[in-house]
Amino acid sequence: MIVTDSEKRISDICARWRVEGLSVGFVPTMGALHRGHLSLVEIAAASSDRVVVSIFVNPTQFGQGEDLDWYPRTLEEDCSSVESAGASAVFAPRADTVYPDDFSTGVHVTGISEGLCGAARPGHFDGVITVCAVLFGIVKPDLAVFGMKDAQQLAVIRRMVSDLRMGIEIVAAPVVRESDGLAMSSRNQYLSVEEREQACLISAGLEKALSLFRTGERNCEVLQKEFLAALKDAPLLRVQYVETVDPDTMLGVERVDKQVLLAVAVFAGKTRLIDNILIWSEV
Ligand code: AMP
Fold first, then answer.
1. Coil, strand, or helix at residue 52?
2. pLDDT tens for each residue of 223-270
3. Does residue 150 have its Cβ closer than 6 Å to ligand 1?
4. Does residue 242 sit in the same domain as residue 214?
5. d(Cα 108, Cα 54) in Å, to the nearest integer?
6. Is 38:58 a contact under the CB 8 Å cutoff?
7. What DSSP line would sit under 93-150, residue for residue?
8. Final residue of a structural domain among 128, 152, 173
9. Which terminus of the chain, N or C, has fewer Cβ atoms within 10 Å?
10. Total number of domains in the chain
11. Domain coverage including residue 236
């Protein structure tokens, strides 16, 4: 597997693959990789001839006072795990490669990026989609895989790729969870033992709301309350938002008449965790 921090090297390799008729799948990450990330690599590898994983802790998507400086960085372990998952190359650029001194462009998606995490973390999605636009320009993938864990990010990326006619297939990967239901996240390692114990109530609350829907409840406010009730005995958890939205537009929904995303952000101590569940039934 190729590991490089050179923009020229990775773009030359990808160009050569395309000339050889090989399709390129791409998985952008910030590293500190866990099974959730690796599932994305496996999905990319199943439908592309070559897979590039980027590992870049993107400074522009962190707000003031957020965890940029202590975000975990584990490049060596990350490289060996993505190789086992089927990656052909890791691109781990330096910040001044991605953002040279004269970098002057920002991409902004209106609407979809403004509620939920966009409201809680101003500027976050501008940072995310601008770096994705840069990375897409370097790698020029046929396909890129993003996790449903970050459902709003996925919707924003889809909008950008469609609006800017980037010609990249965006594939959604299901949320990978710990055995007690907690959505895997690089930030879970910040949790104390007590916070970790209570954090599993987040996914339990989402499941309870889904169960209530399955018994016939269609009122979104009632479903949100069901989620909140699951957290009432967890003093270390503080809900930042709980919202029911259309999964494509991220606009608020009051009744479940079609698929609805129940999306939440919860602080466990100082650690901000996000999770979501699709409220719908197959039958
Ligand atoms: P990050 O490194 O946190 O920026 O995440 C990189 C990619 O991995 C994003 O597309 C995330 O949605 C995805 N991802 C993170 N955690 C999970 C998870 N538990 N299950 C599935 N995908 C995930």
1. strand
2. 999 999 999 999 999 999 999 999 999 999 999 999 999 999 999 999
3. yes
4. yes
5. 22
6. no
7. --HHHHS-TT-------TTTTTSHHHHHSTTHHHHHHHHHHHHHHHH--SEEEEEGGG
8. 173
9. C
10. 2
11. 186-279
